[in-house]
Amino acid sequence: SQQGEEDPQALSIQEGENATMNCSYKTSINNLQWYRQNSGRGLVHLILIRSNEREKHSGRLRVTLDTSKKSSSLLITASRAADTASYFCATDTQRGAQKLVFGQGTRLTINP
Amino acid sequence: DAGITQSPRYKITETGRQVTLMCHQTWSHSYMFWYRQDLGHGLRLIYYSAAADITDKGEVPDGYVVSRSKTENFPLTLESATRSQTSVYFCASSVILPSGDTQYFGPGTRLTVL
Question: Which chain B positions have a beta carbon within 8 Å of A101's beta carbon?
Fold first, then answer.
């Protein structure tokens, strides 16, 4: 069963706009991670936020975590065509087990 | 991505045949994973390994066998392939860090079972 569910499933915006993707999960977590997958490629780690953190930044990426609502959001600011990809959240629920549970992803399309 | 490779990248086989997908990493990461990716299901964990000679089942292990005799290799075998095993398979590795683990993915193997 899926731990994380992304919303929306697909998002299409104009280059330069901000893109926001959401992830909801069901059980308590140690950390939550976001990954990007370009078409036909493997996943690439973007950012990790721990359960005791509320917000984290990395370049044009901003991740928030609300453990009371069991949700996270990924904001990509000033989007570029190269940001076109699928984005997945993944939750780490078992400390030390190294096992991640992935959501189904949000497909982001940036239109030039 | 350069540190973790998968072979073959594409494979077509027939129902009932045995197929082995290879995964090799150069980082000496202790943990390795096999996932399958299907439309509507996202990534699902098949098997994982904490170290050489230590493996454990994930969410969807039926029909698959793994081994890990060396830290750098983690082959996945489909003992008798079925059409439902048509999928894209990803291998990943990770290392234990105090901040939490992140996984590094290979480029994937697209498997078609006819």
Answer: 45
Which stretch of DSSP H or E encloses residue B112? Answer: strand B109-113
Cα-based angle A88, B92, B94 (whole degrees, multiple of 5): 95
**What is the helix, strand, coil percentage profile of chain A, to 5?**
5, 55, 40
* Cβ-Cβ contacts under 8 Å for A51 (sequence gap 6 or more): A28, A29, A30, A31, A32, A65, A67
Record: contact A103-B31, CB cut-off 8 A: no
CATH class, domain A5-111, is mainly beta
Nearest-Cα distance to chain B for A9, in Å, is 10
Under 8 Å between Cβ of B89 and B111 = yes
Range of B42's domain? 4-113
Helix, strand, or coil (residue A58) = strand
- How many domains would you assign to chain B? 1
For residue range B10-48, list pLDDT tens digits in order. 999 999 999 999 999 998 899 999 999 998 778 999 999
> Taking the CA of residue B24 as centre, how many other CA atoms within 13 Å lie in the half-sphere pointing to its CB?
8
**What single-letter amino acid sits at B32?**
M
- pLDDT tens for A44-68 read 999 999 999 999 999 999 999 999 9
Q: What is the DSSP letter of B73?
A: B
